[in-house]
């Protein structure tokens, strides 16, 4: 059963030291709004891959492509502003460390910054993720193990103020993908305990700060390996 170090939004000073090596994990997953050099340090110190989605305070990473190691934007060679070596799962479905991860970054639109989307825009981005996940399942029989987002679903761990309202379309994402885990950030605990929530059979986890989690991976025949 793969184990992940999940991080979001708040730097944990103890992790930005060699103490992070005590966590025996297979993968680092990041749900946004963290310094990219922090993510690079975690991946390098643990010698593990890193998968992330951008948060609403991250730089605009749209439009970049990596072709045989060369980063381009709009077909022109460009410097990749994201974390070196990490996999951007935003609006994608990626297979890393034995896990299939569907990603959808950003928050509800509340200002003019990057990585902010209206409900309609996010629903349109989600449709691409759902099509990719369906095609992958038809090809190899495997479902999505983790739904990685920056924002939570509407009414499921979000807040009432406009910048921290969740996305209604994420309920459809959970219903269609049926991942065992949905990991999100964006909602700071401010000293309170943020309890895990459930949407159907999916466990919804706020990973602001950090969490270490075992993830039941799909066995390729539509079943999950039990804990």
Automatic annotation (TrEMBL):
<dbReference type="InterPro" id="IPR029052">
    <property type="entry name" value="Metallo-depent_PP-like"/>
</dbReference>
<feature type="domain" description="Calcineurin-like phosphoesterase">
    <location>
        <begin position="14"/>
        <end position="189"/>
    </location>
</feature>
<dbReference type="InterPro" id="IPR004843">
    <property type="entry name" value="Calcineurin-like_PHP"/>
</dbReference>
<protein>
    <submittedName>
        <fullName>Metallophosphoesterase</fullName>
    </submittedName>
</protein>
<dbReference type="Pfam" id="PF00149">
    <property type="entry name" value="Metallophos"/>
</dbReference>
<dbReference type="InterPro" id="IPR051693">
    <property type="entry name" value="UPF0046_metallophosphoest"/>
</dbReference>
């Amino acid at each position: 059963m793969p184990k992940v170090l999940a991080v979001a939004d708040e730097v944990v000073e103890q992790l930005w030291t060699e103490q992070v090596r005590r966590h025996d994990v297979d993968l680092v997953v990041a749900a946004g709004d963290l310094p990219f050099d922090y993510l690079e340090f975690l991946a390098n110190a643990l010698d593990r891959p890193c998968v992330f989605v951008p948060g609403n305070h991250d730089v605009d990473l749209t439009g970049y492509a990596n072709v045989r190691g060369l980063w381009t934007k709009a077909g022109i060679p460009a410097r990749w502003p994201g974390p070196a070596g990490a996999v951007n799962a935003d609006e994608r479905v990626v297979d890393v460390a034995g896990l299939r991860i569907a990603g959808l970054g950003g928050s509800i639109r509340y200002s003019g910054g990057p990585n902010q989307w209206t409900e309609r825009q996010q629903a349109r981005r989600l449709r691409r993720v759902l099509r990719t996940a369906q095609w992958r399942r038809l090809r190899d029989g495997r479902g999505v193990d983790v739904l990685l987002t920056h924002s939570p679903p509407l009414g499921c761990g979000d807040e009432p103020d406009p910048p921290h309202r969740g996305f209604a379309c994420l309920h459809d994402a959970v219903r269609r993908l049926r991942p065992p885990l949905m990991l999100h950030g964006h909602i700071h605990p401010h000293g309170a305990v943020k309890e895990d929530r459930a949407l159907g059979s999916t466990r919804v986890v706020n990973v602001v700060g950090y969490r270490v989690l075992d993830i039941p991976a799909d066995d390729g025949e539509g079943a999950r390996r039990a804990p």
